[in-house]
Amino acid sequence: MRRILFFTLSNIGDAVLTTPALEALHQCFPEATIDLMADPRSSLVFAHCPYRGRIFHKNKKAGWRGLGSLIYQLRRVPYSLVVDLRTDGLAYLLRAQKRLTKRGIKPAGPHAVERHMAVVASLLSPSAPIPPCRVWLQPQQVQFAKAQLSPLPGHRWLALGPGANWPPKIWPASAFTALVNAVKNCFDGVVLVGGLQDRERSQAIGAHLPLPYVDLCGSTDLLQAAAVLQQASIFVGNDSGLGHLAAAMNTPTLTLFGPGRPERYHPWGNRNAYALAPDGQLAQLSATTVAHRLFQLLEKTP
């Protein structure tokens, strides 16, 4: 196969969870160029993927005219294969020798990664392992992270992600502070990571921390945040894209779930765990419970 079009997903975490299927395609067809259909919110995840071709954006705000223009661009390319992890049927409007979609798949398990892998399963050996999630960094992002974290003492750093895209998915700021107090002897410093909308929450947490900290909420792009998380000893955060970025960097990750489906959407990999709030109410999840899960994760991950 010479050229493949791969439909990834929109939200940051969802996009990261498509990268094992993307990696499997590359391993199966190492000489192929893989174009990506992505979303402006998350396409930076794929910016430095070494085997990608073009990145196309499907912008819902562009309406029917934008969609028509996009289809026109895509139909100019005769693809050997189109892999569609979405469900909107766009793959059937394009020129392709072969199409793979979610229709009729038989996942090996409930997780989103397993569902995505099922779409490409017909191309792979049944015994082939599932590749890990990936985010590709450049030296400048790593250098940025090291510079931002240089004020912190030692090297045992606890990264916290206090935000999320929906209030019921957000653990209280006071609970994050209580968690750090419970585990402070295991760490030298704290890193707060998130968007600009999380700054007020991160400031409330930082004001009462017992350890030195760096607040980077609103100060990084996606890849800079990933590079920061790569430097951390462990990440604890709400159900958001940051947990998936941390897991893709092979940083042990503890995700706090209130409402949601952790069996399907928890960060992928064997260095990750989650804490589930009673009755789906994060306000009822105690710092003591989270600290216990954190200690368990630290024990099983070197």
Automatic annotation (TrEMBL):
One of its GO terms (cellular component) is cytosol. Keywords: Glycosyltransferase, Transferase. One of its GO terms (molecular function) is ADP-heptose-lipopolysaccharide heptosyltransferase activity. Pfam families: Glyco_transf_9. The keyword tRNA processing does not apply. SUPFAM superfamilies: UDP-Glycosyltransferase/glycogen phosphorylase. It comes from the Bacteria. One of its GO terms (biological process) is lipopolysaccharide core region biosynthetic process. InterPro entries: Glyco_trans_9, LPS_LOS_Heptosyltrfase. This is Glycosyl transferase family 1.
